[in-house]
Amino acid sequence: MHTFLIALDLVGTFVFAISGATLGVRKRMDLFGVLVLAFAAAVSGGIARDVLIGAIPPVALVNWHYLGVSCLAGLLVFFRYHDVERLRNPVQVFDAVGLALFAVTGTTKALAAGLGPMGAVLLGMLTGIGGGMVRDILAARIPVVLQSELYAVAALAGAALVVLGRSLHLPGAPTLLAGALLCFGLRYLAIRRGWRLPVAQSRRN
Amino acid sequence: MHTFLIALDLVGTFVFAISGATLGVRKRMDLFGVLVLAFAAAVSGGIARDVLIGAIPPVALVNWHYLGVSCLAGLLVFFRYHDVERLRNPVQVFDAVGLALFAVTGTTKALAAGLGPMGAVLLGMLTGIGGGMVRDILAARIPVVLQSELYAVAALAGAALVVLGRSLHLPGAPTLLAGALLCFGLRYLAIRRGWRLPVAQSRRN
Amino acid sequence: MHTFLIALDLVGTFVFAISGATLGVRKRMDLFGVLVLAFAAAVSGGIARDVLIGAIPPVALVNWHYLGVSCLAGLLVFFRYHDVERLRNPVQVFDAVGLALFAVTGTTKALAAGLGPMGAVLLGMLTGIGGGMVRDILAARIPVVLQSELYAVAALAGAALVVLGRSLHLPGAPTLLAGALLCFGLRYLAIRRGWRLPVAQSRRN
């Protein structure tokens, strides 16, 4: 199970790195800028979580798999950009997979570090959405998670299910999978059906 | 006194959350984006301070009052936006109250964590201005504290007075109140009278 | 040697603070905004490194030299802006010196904190480029290190040479100097000769 989780974590790293590298190419960054943005998108959420729970140094700086997988994704996007653009929808789906996996593994790590239910849910959500926020800040645009369809809400729901399962003493692995499926399902349906949360009415933009 | 301080801290959280939520509505974020921006504006300064003094996990992730107060402020702004827009000036005044409270409580926490005078003043200022900086970065604009009337200077003055009082062994509570009043007074007068620091002359913008 | 390194570190702080202050004046920030941006550009890389290796509180908040040197640089730029604009090229050269010094001292601190080779190289690079990234984020523009000529690559090369020298048990001081020279040389040649990394072809910008 532990190995399986690490494998899923690296899949999440890979797809988030692809999203960062794609934005870097669009903003006409050079090869190294693209790799930096891929790595930042993939690991920033996890690094913020590790700093906030005191897990120093963060695993993404100690375990070379995260850097390797990020660079692989960045090189792939850089040299096969037209193929990636064509894959547009599959990338969004993989991104939803990454969001789901990071939200539940982040929640689990926060619980293991002794945080209470609220802190664990917040940190799980932060692990899921943090990488995309840093990616968008570095590209000087408003983070899409603040504007797009049920993105952060999906991460919140998955994280909350993990905490709920833990407090009911349900077995760990199925709870994690259920949380990840809930998050992925919400996000996937939001993409497919264009579900949106309401926007307040304002006289100025 | 301790309970009184916590109450004031939560008032500061509330008014900063209102400033974040207001910006979120103006940028046409959805309901959840508004809540995230409200929470980020309210707690980022305190979280940065806690990370830098090693108070892990940060109090805003452990004590649910901060999240609750932030969400309450965010919902209020979202569903009563026109009323908040009309209250414009009172909000700026409350914002000055929050700045003053966070600056002096942040300085006190940094001194209690063993930092020297300079570090405590810097961290007090950071606690006061950090939330607004994160709020503006997430909204992809230059932080107003870097551009507006005596904002950071007021926080610096309040923090410095707390450190000065501590080094002269003055009683704690009155020193805190004096620091908060100094910060609030400077900021309030700067708003009312349009006081500004000088801007250097540059041939290009 | 230790005193020599600290002196070089403060030179790096000074030149990075000049870059921050110059950007602040161009963005028409007031005096205090200019000082804040100077300090942020000078110390953010080092503070991020200290947080990630658990060196709390960060040295830049404890040792007043960093604040003093940053404010000195900020005041100089504010009151002598036209002279600084004329010095344009020398500033870029000093900036390359700062990048080189921060990259090798950051790598050394990370190794001393027990990080492995990969983590030390990443943190050395982050120490070198972090200040400029925060500076540009605060000014609401895409960090130039993601777009300009061999900037982060030069920091990476210098950091990697320090780690290589350490793993071969070469003497410390010459290794540091060699790493700094490699970083400075790459960056300087990139500026002078307009060396750039490739940019991927994209149908949209």
UniProtKB/TrEMBL annotation, chains A, B, C:
Cellular component, GO annotation: plasma membrane
Keywords, sorted A to Z: Cell membrane, Membrane, Transmembrane, Transmembrane helix
Pfam assignment, any one: Gly_transporter
Membrane among keywords: yes
Bilayer topology term: Multi-pass membrane protein
Transmembrane segments annotated in the record for this chain: 6-25, 32-52, 64-81, 93-112, 118-138, 150-169, 175-195
Cellular compartments annotated: Cell membrane
InterPro entries, sorted: Gly_transporter
Residue ranges occupied by any Glycine transporter domain in the UniProt entry: 7-80, 93-164
Domain of life: Bacteria
Family: Belongs to the UPF0126 family.
Name used for this protein in its record: Trimeric intracellular cation channel family protein
Gene source species: Cognatiluteimonas weifangensis
